[in-house]
Design a protein that fits this description.
This protein has 605 residues and is mainly alpha-helical. The chain is built from 23 helices and 6 strands. A 4-stranded mixed β-sheet has the order 2-3-6-4. Strands 1-5 form a two-stranded parallel sheet.
Amino acid sequence: MPALRAIFAALFIPALGAAVVLYILQQLAAGEGATLGEIASLCLPNGPSLNVAPVCANIQNHYTLLLACAGAAAAGLALILAFSLASVVTGSNRVLLSFVFPALSFLGLVLVALLVIAQVAIIAATAYFAEAHWLGQVHVSILLGFAALGALLGLGILWRTIRMFRPAVGAVIGVPFSPIEQPRLALLVQQIAKATNARMPDNIVLGLDPNFFATTAPMHTPTSRRLLRGQTLYLSLPLMRVLSLDEVRAVVGHELAHFSGADTIYSKNFAPIYRGLEEAAQAADEHKQYDKNPLLMPARLFLRFMLDCFARNAAKSSRARELRADQIGSGASTSADLGYALIKTGILSMLWHREMEDTLNDISRGKFRRNMSASFEDKLRYDVDPEKLPPLVSFSLGDHTPHPTDTHPETKERLNALGLNLVDVTSEARVMERFFAAKPATMTLDNMEGVEEALTQIYHQIIIGPRNVPQAERTTDEVFVSFLSAYLAHMVTADGVLDEREVEVAEREAISHLGGGFDAREFREFCRNTDQLAPLSKLTEWSTKFLTPQGFEMLLDMLEKIATADGELHERERKILDNVRAIYEELKAAEAAGAVTPQAPARPR
């Protein structure tokens, strides 16, 4: 269908112009008592020539327009034929695609621009002859303006073509890594590059987006004044909190494989141009509802045809290069490690979208997080029901891995190509082990939290933009929830260990007493960042203002359950319990005696 539409775009206006001119010539011939055939035999030159016989000088302009119509139609058909043949010749060969497609696309777009100019000129010239023949007058200024519009449209296409073929500059929210600050990460990437016979990337960017990718496009980052040129590897910090070190080895090996062999040429020459044409076609489709300019319709049809010619080639080539990169990447670790890295990435990408929604909601209420990556890890650890993971894994097998440059094969197809047994891979025992028992990669790397916190601040600034930070007034209930969360966080971290069992008990108890008013994200933030907590002595002082004897009884019960959740009672936990119990007993006695509420005693140390 795109081919038929392109043929229509190539022939319709030239055919219309030629038909009108021939009809006018036939009318003129009839006025002289001759036929169109007789005029042709008298006036047409014997050989190739742009001029008619001298005796027919009065129809020279008509003849010139007929030649222009024929030339425009031939050029359009030649363009269609060239792309059709090139598509067959190149197939899915990455080297041929890398050299043939960019050159042919540039010439094709230039020709499309010229065809737009030529077709508008044909319309203007045809209108000129029609007005002169039937009306006896010509609106020269209108027709010249119309022709000038066509020239501007064609020049606009030429300008966009030149811009498209300039080196694309990308942008990513990330921080270029420092070998001095992250020496073990530098060594890890170097080892993977050697294992995959790929070159060490020129730049490594650490970011919070939930994917890994490699690109040869120049990249902007918010923290770097210079443009990152050469080969850039992007690493996701939230994913490295969940992927094991071996899984990271495999997925980084996959990305570095794109810096080896024919993939380097393909990534640099073919992928950016094809992506640019795709974006141009999508923009044209999105704008056509309100951009009704019929003069650009031939350009849209040609552009869609040019893409369609190579769409199947690009899909096959993309599939082949991704499967090749999978094989190379698995050599840096194991096929199973790469397989689970793909599965985890698909699932965690969905969770990251939820994390971003929660972050936006928090910011709208004037709440900010110190470390979005750590908060994301908490979401997986505490909010994901383990029983739902196996079916979620099965669902993710039909997903594509997010990537900024092309479409990857389905995860299921990639796992099969790696020789993995899908039944074994998706078994509950394997999934639980990979998601919850494996040691995260970040535990063996250096200084990642500082980078995560810096990126979190950048995200907050981008989300807020030029607006002022929201200053929402907190209700008494919200203040009480924060007070209780801080108290529970003190108990969870009293023994110097952030134990998941204590966190889960604290959240369960808080939800049972407070319901939906409890802010688990705030509580976890307190547990991770104890320096944000108010001193326990202050909380104790405030507790006499917030809590009745019944409230103290509830708090004491919650703290006892948290303290014993890990099977042992630490000395500092015992002191907190004794302190709260003493206040509770004093309040009960005061209430029984009808006395005023006593001041909190000093916190034992």
